[in-house]
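Final report, closing paragraph on structural work. Over the funding period we assembled a curated collection of sequence-structure pairs, and we close with a single example.
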Amino acid sequence: MSRHSPKFSFKNIRLRLKALLIPDSLYLKHQYKKTFSKVAQLNPPETINEFILQRKLYDRNPRYTECSDKYRVRSWVEKVAGEDCLVPLLAVSDDVDEINYASLPEPFVIKVNHGCGQNMIVREKSEVDWLSAKRQLKGWMRNSHYLNTREWQYKNIQPMVVVEALLSEGGELPKDYKLHCFNGVVRYIAVVHDREHKASVSFYDPQWNYLFIEWGRYEMGPKEKRPETLDEMVGLAQKLSQEFDYVRVDLYSVAGQVYFGELTFTPLNGLSKFNPEKYDRIFAQALESSGSSV
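Its predicted structure, as stored:
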């Protein structure tokens, strides 16, 4: 067991006590009502956010945990789709201090495997305050994403620090293609632009028709030309999503090569509004038309 296990965090002790006092069911339903100003309809769910809430409460597929682990998912992706789509792995350890960062080829990104949005971009090692960086990484290692959000799939992931090569386009982070897959079929594609500065999101259908949709806190992004690797991205996403009724497959396209990013089973934690609001129901209808019952 890593000495940076989440159980040693004072924040996690407080959150664990809160979890004992407020069970997941009560907490998650309260969060939904607080966000959407209504009681969630779960039998059956009528919106994609209600479907995500239902999944958080009742769906205990162990594959969700395996594929939400940013290190273990690599082995699963290699078995399902091959290793060519994997970002080069430079180092991995359950101890932040065990990795020799000075020996790693730059640029690279350091992240933890058991959470969300905890990434450290290193373009030049000489510019990094490594004492401060390691302190930040150890804090991330001690945090429990499950206790923060009650997303069950993160609950039993053993914390690791993972270092991968940094993908870039002209020195900037590449666009993040988020393909929403329903029973193995891509129905919607969200493209995140300018991730390091003022991020925005553009939605498309699989034929690359622009959709006037906002989901979450980001502004609606610009229209752009159809990526040359679109068919390859759709094919890879559908291959990776075959055993799931709903999953978001995140991919990158750099210099004609498609790379795997991550699998997300509870996008935006099921607590973000759509604009127009009707798309909350339309996304859920994609589950019905793809063969799942909601």
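The chain has one domain: 10-286. Residues 64 and 91 are 24 Å apart (CA to CA). We thank the funder for supporting this effort.
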